[in-house]
Write a structure and sequence with these properties.
22% strand, 423 residues, alpha/beta, 10 helices
């Protein structure tokens, strides 16, 4: 009996000590190493004979550093890897100027599908010509504002493009010419600090993100676009036709990150999700209104203060967040007025989610809130933020938020939910 027990324990010990990872196929090990920087991936070669050459066929190369020693390491990798093996994904974070073009050419010649380049050096767009490339994320200084003129690429299978000027060259915007957007398979486009061409057509595009860009005067031709994000944009005088032209638009995010709110009409027949963010704290932003005409809008999120006129159907969800900043006596009344003004436009909301600052602003002066008329006639649930218990909500605030919907209930404190995502 004792002998049997000892053999059983020895068998279990061997099972525990067994190296199961090393028994995996190279493809599975490659997938695991794809989450590591290239330096760590290569260092696995010292683990055992099984791992000695695994990195040489690794199709995922992430070079996330740049210094003299790391540059020598990159040379070692590109020299010693198995040149028959293709490269599925390559991330280059800066590199020596004379090696930069060489590495791009190497990746293209090895059928790269996902290429991310963050460089201090400029190279021609035609360097990226490839029939296999599906995703290209390119951050470069670009030598002049007209660098893309006469310089275009051939990327018939590219579905995702991120184009960004290096931060230290933000003194002018990159003019993106129409020829650069001649990408028949493109579905996702992300442009930062660019000036768009007067007209361009991307029939397959479904997601567009524009940051610090100048829009053209002509309305875009994007029949399949479903998601649009605009961050600190230079808008034309009249934007109403722009949104109306996007017949497939379902999600819109507008972020006034460093700018004041300007008059804006959001008119969209099929818009379902809308998020508006205002970061600048100033009374001047209240001079202009954002008019929302969206008969199918379901989910609305507001961050910051702005005046809004809403003309649409019943809202399923409304999330209201204000700046998490100290409240002073001079701004408190102003903030309370802004809450009352915005809430008056959201009476059809079924589920209302508030942040802690909004609750605090409402609770600071209950005598004033007690005289406000409850705008919410269709409310089903009031979601409080984490850190706010139902018992801490004063009767005046409770009556203001729930008085128009006797059957509405308060949901226990929970993290606020973002009801739609950009990607």
């Amino acid at each position: 009996m004792e002998v049997s027990r000892i053999k059983y324990e020895q068998k279990n010990a061997r099972t525990v000590d067994e190296d199961r990872i090393s028994k995996l196929s190279d493809d599975l090990i490659h997938q695991i190493l794809s989450y590591l920087d290239a330096r760590l991936a290569v260092q696995t070669s010292v683990l055992s004979k099984r791992w000695k050459l695994v990195w040489t066929t690794l199709p995922f190369l992430n070079f996330n550093e740049y210094n003299f020693v790391y540059c020598k390491f990159m040379i070692h990798v590109f020299t010693r890897r198995d040149h028959i093996s293709g490269i599925l994904k390559l991330h280059l974070f800066r590199t020596n100027v004379w090696l930069f073009q060489k590495y791009i050419n190497y990746a293209v010649s090895h059928d790269v599908q996902h290429l991310t380049v963050e460089s201090d050096h400029h190279c021609s767009l035609s360097s990226f010509n490839s029939k296999t490339l599906k995703e290209l994320k390119l951050t470069m200084p670009f030598e002049s504002e007209d660098v893309t003129k006469g310089d275009c690429w051939s990327l018939p299978n590219l579905t995702t493009l991120h184009l960004k000027r290096s931060a230290y060259r933000f003194n002018y915007k990159l003019k993106v010419h129409e020829s650069c957007l001649n990408l028949p398979a493109l579905t996702t486009l992300d442009l930062t600090y660019c000036e768009l061409p007067e007209s361009f057509s991307l029939p397959m595009l479904t997601t567009l993100c524009l940051q610090w860009c100048t829009l053209p005067q002509k309305v875009w031709d994007l029949p399949a676009l479903r998601t649009l994000q605009l961050v600190d944009m230079v808008f034309p005088e009249d934007m109403s036709d722009y949104f109306l032209a996007l017949t497939s638009l379902r999600t819109l995010v507008i972020d006034f990150a460093l700018q004041y709110v300007r008059p804006l009409v959001i008119s969209s027949s099929h818009l379902v999700n809308l998020k508006i963010k205002v970061s600048i704290s100033s009374v001047y932003i209240l001079e202009h209104k954002i008019v929302v005409l969206a008969p199918k809008l379901c989910n609305f999120e507001a961050i910051g203060f702005f005046r809004m006129v809403y003309g649409g159907s019943e809202l399923e969800n409304a999330i209201i967040k204000f700046w998490d900043r100290p409240l002073s006596s001079t701004t408190l009344r102003h903030y309370q007025d802004m809450i009352e003004t915005m809430f008056s436009q959201l009476g059809s909301t079924k589920i209302l989610s508030l942040d802690l600052v909004t609750i605090q602003v409402l609770s600071q002066n209950p005598d004033i809130v007690a005289h406000w008329h409850c705008p919410f006639y269709n409310l089903k649930y009031l979601k409080l933020p984490r850190g706010c218990e139902e018992s801490s909500v004063s009767s005046a605030v409770r009556n203001y938020l729930l008085g128009g919907s006797p059957c509405a209930s308060i949901v226990k404190p929970m993290p606020q939910v973002f009801y739609f995502t950009l990607y």
